[in-house]
Design goal:
The protein is of the alpha/beta class. It folds into three domains: 68 residues, Arc Repressor Mutant, subunit A, CATH 1.10.10; 130 residues, Response regulator (Rossmann fold); 134 residues, Response regulator (Rossmann fold, 3-Layer(aba) Sandwich), CATH 3.40.50. Helices cover 37% and strands 22% of the residues. The strands form three sheets. The chain has a seven-stranded mixed sheet, with helices on both faces. It is globular and about 65 Å long.
Amino acid sequence: MKGKIRTRKLPFSVSRDDARSLVDQVADGLRQGIVSGYWGVGDEIPSTRELVPLLGVSVIVTKAAIARLAAEGYITARLGMKTIVRDRGEKQWLGNVLFVYHAANVGYFQTAFAEELRTRLNREGYLFTRATISTDDSVRVTDYSLVKAALARKADLAIAYTSRRDIFHHLSKSGVPYVQVLQNCEPPPGATGATSLDNAPALRALAQAASAAGIHKAVSIHWTWSRENRKDTITPFFNDAGIKASRIIVRPDISHGRLFGIERAGFDCFNRLIKTKRLDRDTLYFFEDDYLARGALMASALAGLRAPRDFRFVTHSNAGFHPIFDRELSRVESDPIASGAAVADAVLAYLKTGRYPDNSAVRPQFLKGETF
């Protein structure tokens, strides 16, 4: 029955622990509710003021999210009138680009990267639809329903922000051309192309600078939730520079929140090194995640230790979002905005010419800073 309104229960919630902004979370939730069929064409969705108590956010957040979906053509929203799901065929978009990612990949980089993609593609007249998959590790079941619902609608290109072969399989079966975007990736079989987030030049520069500074040992610290550790792409660069390297893997407790859990894991890991007197100034400590680094810096501050006087410290970071420290951090820095713009240019080239640029890549940079 068209024209119905569902306000008692929403098909999504928001979290202050999510790396996405509240506006992104509300917009993504409403969009996925429409794409999945929870709200159909002609249905009334909750108003900006009705969403406030349902989600526990401000009316500023809900107004911004509703305005975004209206601009994308999903809804009709006018002041003083009902907010109605519209037939997206009514808006004359030049095409539709689908962004597919796993819920576990959401972080600051992915959020800012995807938002820049959306902004640039919308500006050129292309709809940008997000679809996520999620996995229940307790029963090892993956939910593809939102991706399947999105693929049921016409898409000109899918961007797979993942390395999961099962997602590539779903995209290949759908017949929608797709490209992969991820760290150090090669185009998977059947893909139209790929953009690699290529860390190699920055890591090589880091290892060479460490060698020039007389460092002979390095420890990289990484977190994972899975039992299989992610491929080690860092140690070989240190080894090539004549630096003996090892790796510490931590598994965060995310029962109190994902980001808190990662930061706490960094704190606990570095605190153990301090308390067991295994923290060595002749060793370079490289944190592969900026939340891990935040926790480690807190542990060192509480112990009265400073970099580089007491330890050598480097972190991966995102431009404009690296941990706060009283000295400039030595870091391998990614720029999600510039990366999103570069991928948008490659996607637009494909949409206009039918060819995705070869050797497409975006590259972080190494900034030496003052902490090693």
